[in-house]
Design a protein that fits this description.
Keywords: Isomerase
CATH topology: Chorismate Mutase Domain, subunit A
Number of helices: 3
Largest sheet: none
Protein name: Chorismate mutase
CATH class: Mainly Alpha
Organism: Peptacetobacter hominis
GO molecular function: chorismate mutase activity
Number of strands: 0
InterPro entries: Chorismate_II_sf (IPR036263), Chorismate_mutase-related (IPR051331), Chorismate_mutase_GmP (IPR011279), CM_dom_sf (IPR036979), CM_II_prokaryot (IPR002701)
Helix content: over 70%
């Protein structure tokens, strides 16, 4: 005989997983848009003989991202995410500037 509590738990877990899948899809779409803009930034920097590394800009991006955060308990994770995104963007820019 099936345990109704187990079915409820699995159903809830499936719903949470579906929610995460939708969010992941949005994140990937936004990530792709961000990379496309990073390519444009690379082209601009190349044309204007600018360095890829813009330390002040990176600080501004992190500060702005943290200001948008609703739950500050996640601030270290958000900072880590933004650093990762910026590192990826710098790699993309380096590849495009070569």
């Amino acid at each position: 005989m099936c345990n109704p509590n187990k079915i409820n738990i699995e159903t809830s877990l499936d719903k949470y997983r579906e929610e995460i899948d939708l969010i992941d899809s949005q994140i990937i779409n936004l990530f792709e848009q961000r990379i496309e803009v990073a390519v444009k930034v690379a082209e601009y920097k190349k044309e204007n003989k600018m360095n890829i590394l813009q330390g002040k800009r990176e600080e501004e991006v992190i500060k702005k991202a943290l200001s948008e955060l609703k739950n500050m308990e996640y601030s270290e994770y958000a900072k880590e995410l933004m650093n990762l995104l910026m590192n990826i963007s710098k790699e993309v820019q380096k590849d495009k500037i070569k």
